[in-house]
Amino acid sequence: MMRKRILAVLFILTLLPLSMAAPTAEVAQQQQQQQQYQPSVGQAGKDVIWVPTPPELIAAMLDMAKVTPSDYVMDLGSGDGRIVIAAAKRGATALGIEYNPEMVELSKLNAQKEGVAGKASFMQADIFETDFSKATVITMYLLPDLNLKLRPKILEMKPGTRIVSHAFTMDDWEPDQTANVESRTAYFWIVPAQVAGTWTMQAAGGPTEMTLTQTYQKIDGALKSGGKDLPLKNAVMEGARISFSVGDTPTATRLYTGVVNGNTMSGAMKAAGGSDVKWTAARR
Ligand SMILES: C[S@@+](CC[C@H](N)C(=O)[O-])C[C@H]1O[C@@H](n2cnc3c(N)ncnc32)[C@H](O)[C@@H]1O
Predict the structure, then answer these.
(1) Using CA atoms, how far apart are residues 269 and 254, in angstroms rounded to an integer?
(2) With a threshold of 0.90, does the pTM exceed it?
(3) What is the pLDDT of residues 142-191, one digit of tens each?
(4) Which residues line ligand 1 (CB under 6 A)?
(5) In Å, how far are 77, 147, 151, 159, 187 from 170, measured between CA atoms?
(6) What's the CA-to-centroid distance between 117 and ligand 1, angstroms?
(7) Which residues contact 147 (CB under 8 A, 6 or more apart)?
(8) Under DSSP, is residue 201 helix (H, G, I), strand (E, B) or coil?
(9) Which residue's C-alpha comes closest to atom 14 of ligand 1?
(10) Average pLDDT of the residues in 183-201
(11) Element spanning 163, H or E
């Protein structure tokens, strides 16, 4: 009996050092942080190296894009996740696409630490193989040739989608806005609706013809009136919203505003001193 007790005590004593060494949750987290992957600025990436965007510029980029909780923000080449996390902190749903799997894991940990893991997610993928068409805001810090390679896909996105690029432009697609923070620049574009072509417009005075030319967000054209071509003035395309005026004198000026939806447009026309008159147009 006595021998059995001694053996039991000895057995428990052999287990003691193990149980004492078992880490608490806090110690485990500290150990995990110590072992955490440490990226280095300038490290190789699939198509571009990793260089993080500074927080002040991220704030300016998200301000230019007017990110709100109703947005779905995607960062193409998301690095350590900082843009995605900043967007999630503004209440947006945000997704980072990053080729380097270790950066993806690091981003997930960073999102957890910042308390936005529910809004910020990360996907290990190649940006050139990924469907980003559902995003309402795209952010990127890539290279000029990579921006250009993405441009056709970006221009096919829903009109009104906002694009922000740190440092690099879109060649001849001029930005709608720029932000300078210290020595860095971010560029902002709104994807324009495609409106080039001939349209039949229905307005108060019966059907008329409108022709539009377009270079990205810049539009021009003319409206037929009484057999004459009236050139469009102050023509602006902002996402799906179009506006222009026709007429040479203040009393003859008519201001058109409308919204483009594929091959149709509709809106209101205001003449000097008059009330709004509805118009529609269909592409021929
Ligand atoms: C200049 S860093 C920008 C990181 C982050 N967007 C920021 O602004 O802080 C570019 C990132 O793109 C990633 N990358 C490069 N080529 C990629 C590709 N084809 N698909 C996905 N990610 C890529 C790199 O690993 C790197 O983390």
Answers:
(1) 7
(2) no
(3) 999 999 999 999 999 999 999 999 999 999 999 999 999 999 999 999 99
(4) 45-48, 50-53, 75, 77-79, 82-83, 97-100, 103, 126-128, 141, 166
(5) 17, 6, 7, 17, 9
(6) 20
(7) 140, 165, 168, 169, 170, 171
(8) strand
(9) 77
(10) 98
(11) strand 162-166
